[in-house]
Amino acid sequence: MTRSQLAERSVRCRPFPAWLCGRSAVLGLAVCGWAVTAGRAQTLPAALPAQEQADSERPDAPLSEQPPDIVVTGKRYGAAVMDPERELDEDEIAAYALNSIREVMSEVGPQIDGNSDRPILLVNGQRIADPRDITSYPPDALQRLEILPPDAAQRYGYSAGQRVVNLVLKRQFDNGTVELGVAAPTAGGRVSSTLGLGRVGIRDATRWNLSLQARRETPLYQRSRSIPAGTAPASAGNSISAVGGGEIDPRLSALAGTIVTVAGIPAVAGGGMPSLADFVATANRVGGAQQDDERTLLAGSQGLSLNAGASVPLGRFNASLSLRADASGSRQLTGLPTVSLVLPAGNPWSQFAVPISLTRVLAGRPLATRQYAVSTGLSASLNGEVRGWALSLAGNIDASRSRSTTDRAPDAEALQTRLDALDISFDPWGTLPALPVRRDLARSSSLSATMRLTADRGLAALPAGRASINISAGLAGARSTARAGSDDGLATMATNRQADARVTLNIPLTANGKALGFLGTSSASLGAGRYLSTGASARTQLTGSVDWTPFAALHLSAGYGRDQSAPSSEQLSAPRVETANVPVYDFARQEVATIVQITGGNPALGKGIRQNLRLDGSLRPFAKARVQLHASYTVNEAVDGIGAFPSLTAAVEKAFPDRVVRDAEGRLLSIDTRPITIASDRSSQLSGGLSLGLPFGPMRAVPSPNSPAPRASSPTGSKGAPTSRLAARREGSLQLNLTETLALTNRTLIRSGLPIFDRLAGDGGGVSRTTLGLQATASYKGVAMALSGRRRGASRTRAAALDGAGDLRFSPYAAVDLRLSLDPGRFGRRMQPVAWYRKIRVSLDVTNLFDARQRVRLANGSPAPGFSRDESDPLGRIARLSLTGRF
């Protein structure tokens, strides 16, 4: 028996954890066993050179005649300071058929963590100043993607609980791309288009990139969707009602046979004063057009982005510099302007015995909200080693300017004066004279700069290994200015400076073959930090983590962090913006209200305390098969933290009465949704998942990615693939990823003295208890297909009534996305490398394949107003066709 056969046998015969022997694991073991068989088959590739294949087919020789094993140790190219929890190679990355590393990170997000936090990115095991530069690279530039264990953040000097991903680039890569994409909902009404140009070059430690992208989205008008009458904000047109609410006029009610509280203005009014009988046909109905052509459900927008960067070696260091710029604009139509007038009882144009409220829609251009923004940024970093210290110096400078204009209804004071003066020449039922539209202007600018120095090195050797220390220090400054109104309007300025220092100590506790080796390998990390910021006392951060690998297949870790948080400059000093005609569901009246929504910063925010606890475990039951099970338990708690304004239920309105404005009839007029301070917030969740990587198809020989030279052009058009050594891979691959998250608790105390909100029970805006995600990606040569499914469990939002009569009940929601890709450059070797069709990839993406929408109903089962199919999701199913060319 050869050594390889003995090794394979030892893999098959090693003991597994007891829980794998249960009945619930039978199906999983069957699938994983097939994967192991497929993995072992890779040791005999048919495409290897004849001599190597002949050697592999020789009869077995006695072990005494076999040459001794030669073990070569060294650092793997681009590796991080610790082994990855999961790794994606070139084929697995290519199977996603995406156009940028940014898209890849979004796709593999559920595999990294159960929450939506963005991971920290490393490049070739080193820190980078700004990830936006590297994420613009095409996925073909990646040799592999490493998802590091949860405790990796502290090893690199970051806060505990953050996840880290290491992007390992190819040693040699030269590729240009042109991308054209067009997307539209299958229901029509909107078209999105993108055009991108890019070029990336990599020569060992030297790399550079340049990319330019233009994007445009047409507006989605209300006429393109079916909005139920009475729920669309624009449905309130020309109408009359009683001043202060209630019955308009008993005489009109007698004619209509019912109490009339609102009535549309009849068409006959344009030719003179209408009679009471003319209002019978429109009794208790709102008059006026829906204004479908004057209102957009989604704004039209356009933008242009530029990204350029370079990284070069400077002696023992590697320096990088990147520049980015972005300009964007949007225009949202909010309907025709309206004015509200009071028609006195004694006015010659009134036939009513009491004053009435008169609402008129003015003809002309619709009201609009326009937003423009320009931002630029510069990032630089320096990485190297000095006397055993691995040093990283990174800095960022960002500047932005924005401008927002919001049209308001004209001032009708002059018209009201004429009505009060009983001016007979002013007909309030006819065409009203033109009135100038008011316009609110808000402008803001910000400038921020950060710099951080990080150093780590090994310390004294301990029985289990060498301890290490990580020291980081940073400086940050931000200045923002917000101005509302004209040039001499009210301006708000804010300046914030911050300095911090952190120290993290990593201590090996046990190690295989060393101290307490029978316990496996384990280590601990302890960290402490101190923060100083403008206008606040010093803040402290404490972190700690322990990770343990009792045997090669199992990894366990635990981490705890406690720090004092502070609001960002954006949360403090963002300009106050008032947006009119925003539809909001009013729980108190169980109707859709058209309000003025106030957004911006809140200077009253203060610092708080955050704590988090995390327990993680991952199991790789087979040495060769790509099978991994993972589970985690997290607890997050915040005291005096910062949060978004919750849904306006009765309890929320009671807690923030100064944030809500209603009229005399109780109708909702405006909501101030700026950030708030939350007394306490605590949540916990349990998440788990299963990942499978199953190769299939015939074997093929591919260049070894770590081979030093020589170089040649790859089939995809990228130059410089090493060809001196060969490795074996199968032509196809199948990747399956299943994740599920179970929310255990989610409780919020907004203010002392108020009841605690149980978000899982529906208080203050309910949240779902369960979420499920499934990804399946299959690729064979140049054909790839990916299915991505997500399911969110049912939830509800409680109203004030104890019987739940006004509750909103959200049904379970599930959606599936589909991606198909055709890449002739990976078909095979029968095509010539210079053929133009080998440099083109065509992709079809369908988001929400089955056009699913979440249903929202009241407690009695009737549809909730404002949550119809097109109101909750006006886009629905979206198809996107993209064409990518390489040069």
Structural overview:
- By secondary structure, this protein is mainly beta.
- It is built from 13 helices and 43 strands.
- The chain has a 22-stranded antiparallel β-barrel. It has a five-stranded mixed β-sheet with strand order 1-4-5-2-3.
- A hairpin with a 2-residue loop joins strand 22 and strand 23 (536-551).
- The longest helix has 15 residues, at 26-40.
- The chain is elongated, with a radius of gyration of 32 Å.
- It starts with a helix and ends with a strand.
- The relative contact order is 0.11.
- Residues 1-66, 232-236 and 705-724 have low confidence and may be disordered.
Counted by DSSP, the helix tally is 13
Helix content: under 10%
The coarse silhouette is elongated
How many strand elements? Answer: 43
Rg, Å, rounded: 32 Å
Termini separation: 50 Å
Backbone structural class: mainly beta
Strand content: over 45%
For the largest beta-sheet, the strand count, sense and barrel status come to: 22 strands, antiparallel, barrel
Low-confidence stretches: 1-66, 232-236, 705-724
Mean pLDDT: 81
List the helices and strands and how they pair.
Layout: H1 3-13, H2 26-40, H3 50-56, E1 86-89, H4 90-95, H5 101-107, H6 109-112, E2 120-123, E3 126-127, H7 131-134, E4 142-147, H8 152-155, E5 164-169, E6 172-185, E7 192-203, E8 206-217, E9 220-221, E10 239-242, H9 250-256, E11 262-264, E12 296-298, E13 300-314, E14 317-335, E15 338-343, E16 356-361, E17 367-386, E18 389-408, H10 413-420, E19 438-462, E20 465-484, E21 491-510, E22 521-533, E23 536-551, E24 554-565, H11 569-573, E25 577-586, E26 591-599, E27 608-619, E28 626-643, H12 650-655, E29 660-662, E30 668-672, E31 676-703, E32 711-713, E33 719-722, E34 726-749, E35 757-758, E36 770-780, E37 783-792, E38 795-797, E39 808-810, E40 813-822, E41 840-847, E42 856-858, H13 869-872, E43 878-886
Parallel strand pairs: 2-5, 26-30
Antiparallel strand pairs: 1-4, 2-3, 4-5, 6-7, 6-43, 7-8, 8-13, 9-12, 10-11, 10-16, 13-14, 14-17, 15-16, 17-18, 18-19, 19-20, 20-21, 21-22, 22-23, 23-24, 24-27, 25-26, 27-28, 28-31, 29-30, 31-34, 32-33, 34-35, 34-36, 36-37, 37-40, 38-39, 39-42, 40-41, 41-43
